[in-house]
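[job 4417] fold queue: 2 targets
>>> target A
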Amino acid sequence: MPQISVIIVASRRRQYLERSVRSVLAQTGEGGPLEVVVVKDFADEFVDGLANAGKVVTIDLAGGPVGDYLARGVSAAHGDVISFLDDDDAFEPSKISRVRRAFAEDPGTVYFHNGMNLRYDSQQRARGLFHQRTGRDLVIDPRNHPSAAVDRALSLSLPINLSSVSVRRSLLLNQLGALREITGSTDFFCFYQALSSGMRLRFTSEQLTTYYIHASALRPKQIDQEAIRLFDRLSRDQIHVHSMGLRLPESVGARRVARSMFTEFQFLAVNLHPRSRRELVRRYSEFLSSSLTLRPIFVALATPILVAGLFSRRLALQFLFVGRQVIQD
């Protein structure tokens, strides 16, 4: 059975870290080696105590992009397979045993992505815009209609959320330099690397990860103050990562996917600061008439923004912010 290393990245959000670490240490049905690596930029009594007891490995950094945190964790890990976990998410008890089985049963699998539960910090299930099906059973195999499978994965928004991603460590070892550069969209980074490998990618609808939505960040009074800044960062990160995808080998349509996604997020970046709701609608309409390729993941996000823009610029910005919460890495 493959050895699993879980890399937890913790930056400034110390109030959630203990919950994440406990969810890993509480795994059930386990019979193989499990390593926990926590990369953080603050002292934490709980985690540091576990490190002193030899139960986790800690790497302390002074700050930097999230890609550098992940690269440090991958370099220090010893597992054949890496499972990622954001410091404010959690694993379901059977997560690691399911990941171990997936990679053990198929040596040709290089990437495994599971579905997720969406919850508020109160443990209440997220509804409305957050209540979506976040996983499907799908295999992307270079020998079996790869383009159709890649298109289906993107149309279902499957690659999102790094806490749902597990990869073979070898996939990232020769890309640590590129990984260190990125400040976000690490889920798509792993997706592109897997696409370019020529190996199989597997998606399961099993909800093995809990993605927490921090309800305090969704209060209307914070929308005008934070929405544009957060979505601006999202678009900048996405454009950077998809431009990396354009440089990958022409394997399983990786460059084709990157080119399409690159165009879509460029459009979103241009539309972050509309002067009016009329301008927002006009720009979107122009894009619809000029773009030859629109992926459903983009339409799913942009259509509510268009409709909201017909009534209120503030409402449109709220949709932008909600989209950021749902698809952030």
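>>> target B
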Amino acid sequence: MPEFTYIARDPAGQKVSGTLSAPGRREALAALAGKSLFPLEVQAGARTVIAANVRRVPAQLLATTYGQLADLLRSGVPLLRSLEVLRKQTSHAGLKQVLEDVCRQVEDGATLGQALGRFERIFGEMAVSMVRAGGEGGFLEEALTRVAEFTEAQEDLKKRTIGAIVYPMVLAVVGTLVVAGLIVFVVPKFTDLFARLRERGELPALTDWLLLVSGLLRSWFVLVFIAAGAAGAWFARRWLMTEAGRWWWDRVRLKLPLVGGVFLQLAVARFCRVLGTLLRNGVPILRSLQIASDSTGNRILGQAVQAASENISAGETLAEPLGQSGKFPVTVVEMIAVAEQANTLESVLLDIADGLERRTWRKLDLAVRLLEPILLVVLAAVVLVVVIALLLPVLKMSMTV
């Protein structure tokens, strides 16, 4: 049955929008009149204006919503009533609009997977596929619970990673500003004092270099440098948004020293977790591989996974093409190969993801712990050089006197 997107006014005069299913436009108008709505705009098509207006819903809020919906269904509350409860209690305006539209679709006879599929950009392809598989297989509550757990785990890993690098970044920025302020505002006050030594050619080379740097920072050179850097960053960002730029960056970041291995392990862990979760919830393996290839966050790994899916459709195993790609760690490929033979691929993939995330987090935590004292030592060394450069001429003049 065709679907229509509408914008109407309710009896209170408020604008409401959503979708409904009807044999034709006339029936759609009649359905709106039956709901005491005055139609302003009715258009045929599956795409809703809500999906375009709601840009993003926080992942933590989505995870909470999935978990609460699973609890309500498990307690025997009907699906439509559960969605109404969630819609009323949420304080996020965008999610409230989305749930309102989902309620209308379910009321019109759509399944929960179909209703969420219209907002795939908001809920994510993986969540929609798992909910659809759960609805078809009769384990919707379990599928929603696993979606909630997966979303929370991914958000927790993201927050832990960001939280780990915030302090070193703040320390580096503050230290750079302090050193720059020292060179720009303090060092120039000694210029006149050291002028006589410079005329005699007795000014230490270190002090002469420091005064030169201070003069450059106080001149237009800094503004030109900042402007050039900002322009370069803007052009680089625009280029990285292109398809060629994304491919280049995905290829380069896997080869970066020190952090390249972290990027690789996180991408492989994300792939294993998504694939294992989808397979455990009854999603066919080819569809699961397609979703998992997009979830890696790296086009190089995604390309290797897509090549593996083509081999699987030809009757081969998953481990062999992944190993031939050279992008996946050998231990991961061997564990997948053993799991395929033992028919325990879903649980092994989730175990691999847990192990990779734990090891990656330990490495990241160790790197951050080492980075903090290194930054402090570097900043202290720079300040010491500045102080020595200023004290050397003073000591020389005192010795001359």
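[job 4417] complete. Note on B: The radius of gyration is 30 Å.
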